[in-house]
């Protein structure tokens, strides 16, 4: 008598009853899904938590150097929902002294060049670009710039000599001063070439009242920074967040593809001492009893006070 086979016999374990083609397709699908999830997580982190930024110019010398790479805290002011002007609640409001990454509009002018202007005032469809500057004026503040000195609401920002100098990317040496911006002490540069400016050498004076909901930005390299003195104020909607920490620094002015160039790894100067430095202000300590230091940079007197990395910034222009 023969043995009767069950019509529902089980297939060999491991292939699920599918042929080799089906197994191969399933493996590819699994890899694609894993890759999509990884990309989605990376984009979510960039949009809502932290975003990398590269310093392309010297407008924030000596705080930030060309080739510094830093992280921006997107949670601080509240991340913006993609493709909208809606912001989620942040952990704090923007403060004087923050080194901020923000967006500006870059429309073309009649001469074929590229201008800088606030995004909300630019023509529709204007390309945007990230800048980084120090926040100097809050909504309602009056900012004055006279003879190389900053006044906030009628009061001059105290500056002091540090006894240090900074050599910029073209070999020019600048005295480094510390500036007290409220509770934020940070470093600024004094360009000796601007002491006797000509009519077109720099914006040597001006007065501005910061509109509600907007912020006034200036570079720490005060005499060589294209900032709110020239193109206006920035809305909260355009603020990405404060710079918080340097994760890499070298003397290469290039995008992320520069990391793939092996020549850079052998020839470029790596600034190991700057890696993992925080971008922050130094606290303004109470002045000791004794002769008062001169509040103005032009006086050139006062006790030294340095600002550490309280000045790592840069922005195009």
Describe the protein in words.
A hairpin with a 2-residue loop joins strand 6 (149-152) and strand 7 (155-156). This protein has a seven-stranded antiparallel sheet. It has one domain (51-286, 293-299): Ribbon (Umud Fragment, subunit A), CATH 2.10.109. The longest helix has 29 residues, at 20-48. It is globular and about 80 Å long. It is built from three helices and 15 strands. The protein has 317 residues and is an alpha+beta fold. It is 12% helix and 28% strand.
Give the N-terminus to C-terminus distance in angstroms: 94 Å
Please, what is the average pLDDT?
Answer: 83
In DSSP terms (H or I, runs of 4 or more residues), the helix count works out at: 3
* Structural classification: alpha+beta
How is this fold's topology laid out?
Elements: H1 20-48, E1 50-54, E2 68-73, E3 99-105, E4 128-137, E5 142-146, E6 149-152, E7 155-156, E8 159-167, E9 173-181, E10 184-189, E11 205-209, E12 214-218, H2 228-231, E13 234-235, E14 239-249, H3 262-267, E15 282-283
Antiparallel strand pairs: 1-2, 2-14, 3-4, 3-14, 4-12, 5-6, 5-11, 6-7, 8-9, 9-10, 10-15, 12-13
How do you describe this structure in short?
The protein is 12% helix and 28% strand.
């Amino acid at each position: 008598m023969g043995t009767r086979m069950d019509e529902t016999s089980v297939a060999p374990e491991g292939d699920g009853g599918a042929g080799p083609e089906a197994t191969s397709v399933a493996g590819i699908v699994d890899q694609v899904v894993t890759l999509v999830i990884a990309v989605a997580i990376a984009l979510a982190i960039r949009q809502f938590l932290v975003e990398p930024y590269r310093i392309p110019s010297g407008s924030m010398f000596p705080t930030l150097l060309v080739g510094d790479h830093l992280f921006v805290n997107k949670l601080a002011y509240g991340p913006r929902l993609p493709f909208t002007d809606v912001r989620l609640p942040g952990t704090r409001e923007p403060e004087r002294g923050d080194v901020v990454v923000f967006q500006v509009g870059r429309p073309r002018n009649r001469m074929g060049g590229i201008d800088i202007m606030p995004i909300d005032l630019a023509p529709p469809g204007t390309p945007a670009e990230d800048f980084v500057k120090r926040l100097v004026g809050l909504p309602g503040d009056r900012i004055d710039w006279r003879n190389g000195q900053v006044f906030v609401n009628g009061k001059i920002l105290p500056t002091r000599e540090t006894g240090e100098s900074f050599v910029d990317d073209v070999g020019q040496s600048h005295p480094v001063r510390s500036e007290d911006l409220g509770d934020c002490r940070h470093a600024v540069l004094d360009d000796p070439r601007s002491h006797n400016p000509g009519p077109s050498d720099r914006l040597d004076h001006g007065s501005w009242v910061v509109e509600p909901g907007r912020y006034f930005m200036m570079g720490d390299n005060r005499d060589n920074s294209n900032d709110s003195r020239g193109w206006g104020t920035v809305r909260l909607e355009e603020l990405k967040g404060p710079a918080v920490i340097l994760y890499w620094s070298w003397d290469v002015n290039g995008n992320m593809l520069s990391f793939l160039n092996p020549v850079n790894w052998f020839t470029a100067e790596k600034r190991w001492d700057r890696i993992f430095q925080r971008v922050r202000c130094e606290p303004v300590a109470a002045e000791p009893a004794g002769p008062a230091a001169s509040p103005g940079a032009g006086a050139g007197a006062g006790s030294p006070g340095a600002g550490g990395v309280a000045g790592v910034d840069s922005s195009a222009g």
